[in-house]
Design a protein that fits this description.
The structure is a single chain. This protein has 95 residues and is α+β, with helices and mostly antiparallel strands. It is built from 2 helices and 5 strands, in the order H-E-E-E-H-E-E. The N and C termini lie far apart (54 Å).
């Protein structure tokens, strides 16, 4: 019974954005074999990395996350909060 509960609990996990981005469109991107989802709401963004990463890969992943956001939004991305799994920030200098 516990196993069934655990499976149901984990199946409910999905990359869902912060409340601020619930109505925002999302874009799914794959870069170097990693999947990311980007949400944009006016001058703010949220990006989520899917899957597991080794601690040694996290700095590179953060840089990739910023690149992904900039490619998707055509804006300069400045992180405000988060880590290599999920990050929010501001968008400036949009084209």
């Amino acid at each position: 019974m516990r196993l069934i509960f655990l499976i149901l609990l984990l199946s409910a996990c999905d990359a869902s954005p912060n409340v601020t981005f619930m109505a925002a469109p999302k874009v799914n991107v794959t870069v170097a074999g990693r999947d990311y989802t980007v949400w944009r709401a006016d001058t703010k963004f949220e990006v989520v990395r899917h899957g597991w990463a080794k601690p040694a890969e996290r700095a590179e992943i953060i840089a990739t996350m910023m690149t992904v956001v900039e490619q998707v939004t055509n804006c300069k991305a400045t992180p405000v909060s988060g880590d290599s799994g999920e990050m929010r920030g501001r968008l400036t200098a949009c084209k």
